[in-house]
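name: query_chain
kind: protein
chains: 1
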Amino acid sequence: MTTDTRKDQAQTGVPESRSNEQEAANRRPADHRAEALRAAADAIARADHGDPFAVLGMQQEAPGRPVEVRAFVPGAEKLWVIDSATGEPAGEAERIHQDGFYLAVMPDRTERFRYRLRARYPLATQEFEDAYRFGNMLGELDVHLLAEGTHLRNYEKLGAHPREVDGVAGVSFAVWAPSARSVSVVGDFNNWDGRRLPMRRRVEVGVWEIFVPGAHAGQRYKFEIRGPNGNLLPAKADPYAFQAEMRPATASVIHGLPSYEWRDLEWQSRKVATSDRTAPISIYEVHLGSWARVPEEDNRFLTYQELAERLIPYAKDMGFTHIELLPITEHPFDGSWGYQPIGLYAPTARHGSPEDFKDFVNACHRAGLGVLLDWVPGHFPTDPHGLGDFDGTHLYEHADPRQGFHQDWNTLIYNFGRTEVQNFLLGNALFWLDHYKLDGLRVDAVASMLYLDYSRKEGEWVPNKFGGRENLESIAFLKRMNELVYGQQPGAMTVAEESTSWPMVSKPTYLGGLGFGYKWNMGWMHDTLHYMQNDPIHRRYHHHQMTFGLIYQFSENFVLPLSHDEVVHGKGSLINKMPGDDWQKFANLRAYYGFMFAHPGKKLLFMGGEFAQWSEWSEARSLDWHLLDQPMHRGMRDLVRDLNGVYRELEPLHKTDCDPSGFEWIESNDNENSVFTFLRKADESGHIVIAVCNFTPIPRYGYRVGVPLPGRYVERINTDDAKYGGSGVGNPGGGIYAEETPWHGRTHSLDLTIPPLSTLILERKAE
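structure:
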């Protein structure tokens, strides 16, 4: 029997071809949606979807239409959507992708509702919150300020922050990766599976964000990033991580910014005075990893707590005013001493937790010690988990290696012309001063930031827009950093390690300076150390290496640094730089320290120098504390303690460190005897200090020194005193009275015995 199609058509009144077309048309939207969803599910399963919140979570085609929930739950056998209000299933999901993409369509639900997911696995059933039901984490103002590069508390929004959202505890993650095709957060909370938690892209600012319910402090994490070409990059540590794993592991650790009960109100009340140009500032430079170790426990590091118990009382007893820490920002390689940091917001895990470090800072303050951080904004390492090629592009660094790569250190250079990069670093500077209450930043390698041709040959650098060698973007960054520090953190100081003659490094920006509070006097250090290394018989020919620094001394606010850089890389220790036999080496170094503490300028001494360690410093082992069993080393330590004491006690030795009115040469040209004499004063009150330095092993008897005022002059320091290991030559008794014998152009003079290889510091006592 055959079918009469013409009869069917007549009965329906619709030609067959038109009926088929209509049926296809009715199917087409649904088929198109299904095809698009399958493609999206496939991209999610490959961890390669740039807009996961448009696919996952609760979706609705239009108001009034049924809602559906989509979830990617690998390994689940079944999945249900649970109504959070009732705890009852609202729908069962269908697996539409073999890797675990589920779709739950709920025809009877046309209003969005709070829900959870219940997954049945082969061995268990779990119920959990869906990360894709939560909205934006960054507010509109945050987005605006981040895009503008003016979010000075950016660390409160970027990174990982434990918080509660809509009554649910979890962690919000945010990372800047504007050129990435997709970004996922991976960690202990999702089995390090980059398919599980792809992040939302905030296109306005290039930040990816997500709230992860159930994640918590202490869990490890990284970011899995696909570059713009779809290439999967090495998993990246969080640039804003507040804690990191102990090396050699490289993951970030969820920590957040928990409140801390500071107990340093007394210190904070006088903090402003401690950093003033008129204050005594004597800095003990310390590498925490090698100040002391625990050799009987596999040579392990001291914890922050152990350092607080041992280092702080020692530094206080020695009379230092500040401890300066070689970089403790997290770094992967011990041998970099911290100068190749990756975790700029995390104190290194080598010594403990962030709270442990806060305890250390708090203990310093309670002991009356300021804490300075050696801060490194000039470069960063190329380790694959770090900032280099962060989103598949040269995001933090310059793309051109002539601008973005340090040949000397094999490190990358920040692109200071990018506002977001500047904001990253400016926020970091303020973070340490605000969150950890540090008292200042010593900025490393400033010269490398100022010059485009730093350590480069012709043709290896790119001139600025005016054709010059000055790095205009870096200069603007340094000025802005100093303006923010001094504007927002009263009492904080910034110190530049700047080794060239760049003008006005420590002058305010409104006068055209860079705005630093202080600058290391590298010229003084090089000249005077070179002089001291000469045999005394030859010093007469190098006499003005000791005086030259006074020509420019008051052009900047100087710190006199005998830093770690002078006792590494084959340079030998300070004591080993000194000429002569062992006795003369100690005498030379004692005299040099006396000269340094009497000389204008704030003071800095690297650990081990205070007791004349023989060995060159190594970051891999403890200082040689056993040397203090020997009298000469104890004597050196005692001298440094006493020098700190008189430097702090006597206003003429510190109040005019940065003021030319407080210094006068008495005799700067006695090269035949290698003797230097000068005067320090704080004001016109008559309280003066006289320094007399003899850099030969010949004692000088009856050496006359002109002084401006009568009175009794008392030896406060004699570096040749027997208690320091010296010969005991000097001017004992109650002091030397000035005689009315004009000398050196002054009305009175002192008849002195000057010990060999020594410095005398004499205080005038008016009577």
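note: The two ends are 141 Å apart (CA to CA).
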